[in-house]
Write a structure and sequence with these properties.
CATH topology of the largest domain: Creatine Amidinohydrolase
Distance between the termini: 52 Å
Order of helices and strands: HEHEEEHEHEHHHHEEEEEHHEEEEEEEE
Number of domains: 2
Largest sheet: 6 strands, mixed
Number of strands: 19
Bound molecules: manganese (II) ion
Structural class: alpha+beta
Shape: elongated
CATH class of the largest domain: Alpha Beta
C-alpha cells in the first residue's frame, strides 16, 4: 500500500463523514496498492476503513504479492463473494461505493445491508488522483517524451502514402522500439475529409496530395498514459486549410496561456473557444477543450464550458481544440499540460507549427 496516498484518502473520507469505503476501480486500486488486478466480471474490492483494518477482497484466480500491506480476503468462483464482503462491512454506517461498480454487485450488497447508507465515494479518490504527486509527474513526463518521439517517427512515414489503417498499424512497433508499454488507446489516423470525424477509426482510405493528416496517439509507460495530436499536410495545404490551422494553433496556445493555479477549467475552455468562435469556426469545435489524464486516458475532470472547478498545481490534462469542416478537413492540435505553481509545463515538445510533409 502507498501509505501517503492511503492517508490522504482517509483524511478526505473523515472530512466527508465517511467511515468506510469500497474501492473497486482497478486503476484506483493500483494507485493505492501498486498492483494491477484486472478481474473481468469477477468481484474485486479494496475496503478502506477509518479503523485501519483495510481489506482487499479478491478471487483466488488472481495473484498479488504476499507483502501488499493489506489483509487479503480470498474467495472462489463458487463462493458467494458479496455474502463474504458484507460480513466485513460495518453495520449502520455510511459506505462509499465506486461510481463504476457493476450494479449486480451493488444491488446484492444493498439487499443484504439495507441499514447502510450507500454513497458515491469516487469523488474523494478522483480528486486526490487529479493532482499528481512527484513520482507520477515524472512518469507522465516520460510517457509524453516517448509519445513525442513516436509521433515524429510516424510523421516521417506519412509520405509512404499508406492507407490510414496501415499507417496506424505501424505505431505499436514504434512504441515497442522506443520502450513504451504499448498504445494507451486505439490511435486515430485520419486523412482529408475523414479528419472531420473526431473519433474516426482508421480505414482503407488512401492519402492524396493536399490532405490534412490527423495523428492522435498515446502510449502507456509504467502504467501512465500520454495523449497528443498533430495535424500535418501532405505535399501542400490549401489557403483555407492554412487559415483554419492558424486558428486552431492559436486557440491551443491561448488555452495553454490561461492555465495557472486558480483559473477555472471553463475559463481555459473559453480561451480556446472564444478565439475559434471569433474566427467564425465555432460550429466546427465539436468537443470540450480537454480532459484529465493519468492512469487512465480520460481521468476524472475535463476542460469544458461547464466545469467551474479551479485548477491546482499537479493537475495534468489535455488542451486539444479542433475545427472540423465536414467534407473537407479537420484540424486538431493537442498537448498535455502539467499545472505548476505559477503556470504550466507543456509535456509535449514536438513541433506544432504548420508542417507540410513531402
Ligand atoms: Mn486527448
Amino acid at each position: 500500500m502507498n501509505q501517503s496516498r492511503v492517508t490522504k484518502v482517509l483524511r478526505q473520507m473523515a472530512e466527508n463523514n465517511l467511515p468506510q469505503m469500497l474501492v473497486s476501480d482497478p486503476a484506483a486500486i493500483y494507485y493505492l496498492t501498486g498492483k494491477w488486478v484486472h478481474p473481468g466480471e469477477r468481484m474485486l474490492a479494496l475496503y478502506l476503513t477509518q479503523s485501519g483494518a483495510h481489506k482487499l477482497f479478491l478471487n483466488q484466480l488472481f495473484s498479488v504479492p504476499e507483502e501488499l500491506g493489506v489483509e487479503k480476503v480470498w474467495f472462489s468462483d463458487t463462493d458467494d463473494s458479496i455474502g463474504i464482503l458484507s460480513r466485513h462491512i460495518e453495520k449502520d454506517s455510511p459506505l462509499g461505493i465506486d461510481k463504476n461498480w457493476p450494479s449486480h454487485f451493488l444491488l446484492r450488497l444493498m439487499a443484504q445491508k439495507g441499514d447502510n447508507a450507500f454513497v458515491n465515494g469516487s469523488a474523494i479518490l478522483d480528486r486526490i488522483r487529479s493532482c499528481k504527486d512527484k513520482e507520477e509527474r515524472d512518469l507522465m513526463r516520460q510517457s509524453s517524451r516517448l509519445n513525442d518521439l513516436a509521433i515524429e517517427r510516424l510523421i516521417k512515414l506519412v509520405p509512404r502514402q499508406l492507407p490510414e489503417k496501415k499507417l496506424a498499424q505501424l505505431l505499436p512497433g514504434i512504441y515497442e522500439e522506443l520502450g513504451a508499454d504499448g498504445c494507451a488507446f486505439e490511435p486515430i489516423v485520419a486523412y482529408g475529409p475523414n479528419a472531420a470525424d473526431p473519433h474516426h477509426g482508421p480505414d482503407n482510405t488512401g492519402l492524396r496530395e493536399g490532405d490534412c493528416v490527423i495523428l492522435d496517439i498515446g502510449c502507456k509507460k509504467d502504467s501512465y498514459c500520454s495523449d497528443m495530436t498533430r495535424t500535418v499536410f501532405y505535399k501542400y495545404a490549401t489557403a483555407h486549410a492554412q487559415k483554419v490551422y492558424d486558428v486552431v494553433l492559436e486557440a491551443n496556445k491561448r488555452a495553454i496561456g490561461a492555465v495557472k493555479p486558480g483559473a477555472r477549467f471553463c475559463d481555459i475552455d473559453a480561451a480556446a473557444r472564444n478565439h475559434i468562435e471569433a474566427a467564425g469556426y465555432g460550429k466546427g469545435f465539436l468537443h470540450r477543450t480537454g480532459h484529465s489524464i493519468g492512469l487512465e486516458v480520460h481521468d476524472f475532470g475535463d476542460v469544458s464550458s461547464v466545469n467551474t472547478d479551479r485548477v491546482q498545481p499537479g493537475m495534468i490534462f489535455s488542451i486539444e481544440p479542433c475545427v472540423v469542416v465536414p467534407g473537407e478537413l479537420g484540424i486538431r492540435v493537442e498537448d498535455l499540460v502539467l499545472v505548476t505553481e505559477d503556470g504550466c509545463e507543456v509535456l509535449n515538445r514536438c513541433d506544432k507549427e504548420l508542417t507540410i510533409v513531402e
